[in-house]
């Protein structure tokens, strides 16, 4: 049965994928970062997930209702349609193409925004860029339902 | 002391106006599309090795056709790029290929990039931390590690000093220097970490060897610096690593010394190939190298028996500090010291300096020591 | 300039006798019972391995480094037993606040862990198999030429200072080594990228004048600010924009971004540490930036960099493509300046309202 997006189950599946590809992530190096994903519907009704990484593994996946109390390096925020388009592209190509990578999507902050309190946290999006992208690329092997909610 | 660009770009009205015009109108000059450069399309000769600097050795971009002297001002323009007038002079003092180049420099660089390892994770720390060493072995080993962590980064300080003085035309050399600096930081790291896991910590610093480090720092030219650093000093250390691997108290330590040995051998290889190139292309500097090596050998003799280094070796080699252990250890260390010196002269021989033996007081001393050892064993 | 030993050892009776004693097995063993600080460090996380953080204990750790180093100008390892006779190696950077950042060790460990090799980690076959359009090919060649110039400049900067930095700052000097190999890697990858698709382009007077000014800063702190923070803020923006050219370029520039972002993290940490110790020196740094920030315009607006970036961002040279590219590059410029100012503000150097850059990039 396909996993709904967005959902803890979906991000847990990515986490499982990371475990299955341990050697890849080990080769990429230490991955010490916690970020949040915020999925909105036309700018409203956010669903928020905190994803934490330590050393070479994803150590935490949680849905949270209020990010104010969370220690995150940055938040990736976009409408559900943007996220779905990105994951559809990943699933179609085995990995994001040059127009759908996290860096490109957040670069001008139009489709997806990277929000942060501390520039040091923002810079972690770049310090761990390849690991972050490979994490999202794991969606290529996840059975996920990317249809918009009715 | 600083450099100021030839224009303050914010006050340069023409410059700013052109930018604003471009951004407003989208009128692009595009003359850079017709840059006066050679057209090449390189590919990897060996796909498993990937695209290497050797694959880039083509035409005016390559190192084979590099002229013997990088004439004129030395800018940051990459070799082969079109160089418009007005590029700043980086004042590189080292602009002769003979002074910096080495056979196979491109190979050494690619090998270095390929063989980087991580002292934090590639050493079996769990096994080492769980290993208890006998007091005399533990202290001797910690003392050896103290010496090694003390001297390793001379080979960061010295090459990095020269890095900014070498013309960017010889970027392969600069890149290799960068890898060596990283290698040495890793060596200082692994020896320090190992010492701190033994339970004995870091022990006595070595004044005599430190003075040798000062000598290495203060060389007058890159060729002199490289000869004494890469070929002589690192050559001696390479022999020491090989003996240390042989004497290592645990399998984990053997692995540690095998890994550092790989890096060190690469540096020594560069030093040899550099000296060979230098002597072939700048024969007038032979006597300068001899003079520099004469003082280096003085330091060797002064420091070769620095108690805190060789005594720790004696205990490790003899596997203890009792009288019979020390006798056995001294025998090994004497052979080790002779081997260090013999290999040093062999390297010079292969680089085109066979006459160094006859001119060297150090060689005479070692010959006497060998004769003495042979007589004792007879 | 050279240094000679204090004696000619071959003729020194003391040395000859000492050598003879050792050869006979008469050990001195003055090192055996030195008063060393005994520790036994273990990895706090075996997955991470044994890190410098695990070694930050007692007199061995960086927490124990005083602000003013007065007792050791040699390469004797921090925490080892210092003895008379250690030479002065000539280090001129001996104040912790001048060079230190509390994230040095962390960034050093991260850089080792996240290393990559352009020869094999970039799919060069895919570059050949999936060529960019002719205008974008030209643009990528030119962009790589400009990035090469910048990388060669940044490569020099740590090299200019490492020789002069006291060895007590081991983790910082090690980080410099990592920064040098990062830059060597960038020199390598941009040269290879350009040469797979036609070769290099035109060097840039504006870029090189700007970079030379930055790397020639008269103090280490102002240089680190200029190169690792200011210049790298631009470089990061360039990498982010150029990565949309192709999938291979997306990966290549992501990997480069990682290296550059670490350098930025060091620089902000160093500034924070420096200003924490010397808050009044913010005035000096402000004056330095008042003088130096013009180079950001020199680099961003250099035609040899600006135009290829517009072509790549827009996907070509048609009027519509240039218009689209121009908009993206303008947004990138504003983003770069904005993030640069944000980084400075986060360490206590608020420049919004003061910087001349706002004349051009507001």
Plain-language structure description:
In chain A, 39% of the residues lie in helices and 28% in strands. With 150 residues, chain A is of the alpha/beta class. Chain A has one domain: Nonspecific Lipid-transfer Protein, Chain A (2-Layer Sandwich), CATH 3.30.1050. In chain A, a hairpin with a 2-residue loop joins strand 2 and strand 3 (44-54). Chain A is globular, with a radius of gyration of 14 Å. In chain A, 47% of the residues are buried. The mean pLDDT of chain A is 93. Chain B has one domain: Ribonucleotide Reductase, subunit A, CATH 1.10.620.20. The mean pLDDT of chain B is 94. Chain B is elongated. Chain B is mainly α. Chain B is built from 15 helices and no strands. In chain B, helix 7 (171-197) runs antiparallel to helix 10, helix 8 (207-217) packs antiparallel against helix 11 (286-303) and helix 9 (222-247) packs antiparallel against helix 13 (323-351). Chain C has 362 residues and is an all-alpha fold. Chain C has a single domain (96-361), classed as Ribonucleotide Reductase, subunit A (Orthogonal Bundle), CATH 1.10.620.20. Chain C has 15 helices and no strands. In chain C, helix 3 (104-113) runs antiparallel to helix 10, helix 9 packs antiparallel against helix 10 and helix 13 packs across helix 14 (319-346). Chain C is elongated and about 85 Å long. At the B-C interface, helix 1, helix 3, helix 4, helix 5 and helix 6 of B face helix 1, helix 3, helix 4, helix 5 and helix 6 of C.
Average pLDDT of chain A, to the nearest integer? 93
Spans of chain A of at least 5 consecutive residues whose pLDDT stays below 50 are none
CATH top level label of chain B: Mainly Alpha
Helix content of chain A: 25-40%
Could you give me the name of the CATH homologous superfamily of chain B?
Ribonucleotide Reductase, subunit A
Can you count the helices of chain B? 15
- Computed CA radius of gyration of chain A, to the nearest angstrom: 14 Å
In CATH, the architecture of chain A is: 2-Layer Sandwich
Main β-sheet, spatial strand arrangement of chain A: 4-3-2-5-6
Q: Rough shape of chain A?
A: globular
Number of helices of chain A: 6
Proportion of beta-strand residues of chain B: under 5%
Q: Give the CA-CA distance, first to last residue of chain B.
A: 66 Å
Uncertain segments of chain B are none
């Amino acid at each position: 049965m396909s996993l709904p997006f967005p959902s803890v189950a979906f991000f847990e599946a990515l986490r499982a994928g990371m475990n299955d590809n341990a050697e890849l992530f080990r080769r990429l190096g230490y991955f010490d970062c916690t970020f949040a994903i915020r999925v909105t519907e036309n700018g409203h009704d956010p669903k928020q997930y905190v994803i934490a990484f330590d050393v070479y593994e994803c150590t935490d996946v949680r849905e949270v209702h209020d990010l104010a109390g969370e220690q995150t390096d940055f938040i990736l925020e976009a409408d559900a349609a943007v996220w779905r388009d990105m994951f559809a592209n990943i699933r179609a190509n085995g990995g994001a193409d040059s127009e759908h990578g996290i860096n490109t999507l957040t670069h001008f902050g139009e489709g997806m925004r990277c929000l942060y309190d501390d520039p040091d946290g923002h810079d972690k999006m770049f310090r761990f860029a390849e690991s972050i992208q490979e994490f999202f690329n794991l969606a290529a092997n996840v059975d996920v339902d990317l249809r918009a909610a009715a | 002391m600083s450099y100021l660009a030839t224009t303050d770009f914010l006050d340069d009205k023409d410059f700013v106006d052109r930018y604003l015009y471009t951004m407003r109108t989208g009128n692009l000059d595009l003359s850079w599309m017709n840059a006066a450069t050679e057209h090449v399309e390189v590919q990897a000769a060996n796909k498993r090795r990937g695209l290497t600097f050797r694959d880039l050795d083509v035409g005016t971009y390559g190192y084979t056709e590099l002229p013997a002297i990088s004439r004129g001002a030395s800018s940051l323009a990459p070799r082969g790029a079109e160089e418009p007038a007005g590029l700043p002079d980086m004042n590189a003092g080292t602009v002769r290929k003979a002074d910096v180049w080495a056979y196979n420099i491109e190979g050494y660089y690619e090998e270095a990039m390929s063989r980087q390892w991580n002292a934090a994770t590639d050493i079996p720390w769990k096994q080492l931390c769980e290993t208890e060493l006998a007091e005399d072995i533990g202290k001797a080993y910690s003392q050896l590690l103290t010496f090694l962590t003390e001297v390793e980064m001379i080979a960061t300080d010295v090459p990095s000093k020269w890095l900014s003085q070498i013309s960017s035309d010889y970027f392969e050399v600069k890149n290799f220097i960068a890898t060596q600096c990283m290698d040495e930081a890793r060596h200082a790291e692994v020896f320090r970490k190992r010492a701190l896991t033994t339970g004995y910590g870091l022990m006595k610093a070595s004044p005599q060897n430190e003075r040798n480090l000062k000598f290495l720092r203060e060389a007058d030219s890159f060729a002199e610096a490289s000869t004494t650093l890469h070929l002589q000093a690192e050559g001696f250390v390479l022999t020491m690593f090989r003996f240390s691997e042989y004497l290592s108290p645990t399998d984990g330590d053997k692995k540690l010394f095998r890994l550092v040995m790989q890096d060190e051998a690469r540096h020594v290889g560069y030093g040899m190939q550099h000296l060979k190139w230098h002597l072939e292309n700048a024969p007038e500097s032979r006597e300068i190298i001899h003079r520099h090596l004469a003082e280096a050998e003085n330091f060797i003799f002064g420091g070769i028996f620095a108690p805190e280094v060789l005594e720790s070796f004696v205990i490790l080699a003899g596997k203890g500090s009792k009288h019979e252990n020390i006798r056995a250890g001294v025998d090994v260390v004497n052979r080790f010291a002779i081997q260090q010196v013999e290999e040093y002269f062999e390297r010079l021989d292969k680089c085109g300096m066979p006459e160094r033996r006859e001119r060297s007081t150090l060689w005479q001393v070692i010959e006497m020591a060998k004769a003495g050892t042979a007589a004792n064993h007879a | 300039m050279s240094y000679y030993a204090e004696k000619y050892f071959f003729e020194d009776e003391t040395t000859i006798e000492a050598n003879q004693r050792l050869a006979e097995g008469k050990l001195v063993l003055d090192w055996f019972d030195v008063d060393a600080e005994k520790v036994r460090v273990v990895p706090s996380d075996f997955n991470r391995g044994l890190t410098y953080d695990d070694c930050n204990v007692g007199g061995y750790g960086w927490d124990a480094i005083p602000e003013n180093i007065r007792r050791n100008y040699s390469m004797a390892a921090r925490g080892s037993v210092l003895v008379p006779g250690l030479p002065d190696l000539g280090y001129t950077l001996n104040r912790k606040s001048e060079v230190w950042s509390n994230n040095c060790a962390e960034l050093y460990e991260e850089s080792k862990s996240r290393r990559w090799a352009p020869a094999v980690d970039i799919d060069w076959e895919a570059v050949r198999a999936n060529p960019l359009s002719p205008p974008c090919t030209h643009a990528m060649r030119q962009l790589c030429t400009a990035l090469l110039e910048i990388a060669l400049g940044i490569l020099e900067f740590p090299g200019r200072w490492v020789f002069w930095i006291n060895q007590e700052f081991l983790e910082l000097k090690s980080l410099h080594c990592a920064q040098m190999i990062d830059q060597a890697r960038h020199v390598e990858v941009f040269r290879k990228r350009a040469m797979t698709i036609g070769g290099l382009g035109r060097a840039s007077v504006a870029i090189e004048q700007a970079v030379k000014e930055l790397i020639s800063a008269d103090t280490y702190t102002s240089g680190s600010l200029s190169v690792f923070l200011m210049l790298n803020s631009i470089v990061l923006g360039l990498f982010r924009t150029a990565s949309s050219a192709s999938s291979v370029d997306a990966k290549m520039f992501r990997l480069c971004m990682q290296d550059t972002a670490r350098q930025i993290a060091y620089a902000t940490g160093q500034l924070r540490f420096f200003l924490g110790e010397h808050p009044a020196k913010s005035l000096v740094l402000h004056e330095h930036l008042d003088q130096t920030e013009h180079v950001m315009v020199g680099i961003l607006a250099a035609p040899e960099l600006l135009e290829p970036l517009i072509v790549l961002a827009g996907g070509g040279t048609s009027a519509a493509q240039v218009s689209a590219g121009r908009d993206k590059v303008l947004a990138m410029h504003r983003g770069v300046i904005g993030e640069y100012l944000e980084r400075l503000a986060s360490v206590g150097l608020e420049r919004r309202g003061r910087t001349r850059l706002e004349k051009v990039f507001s």
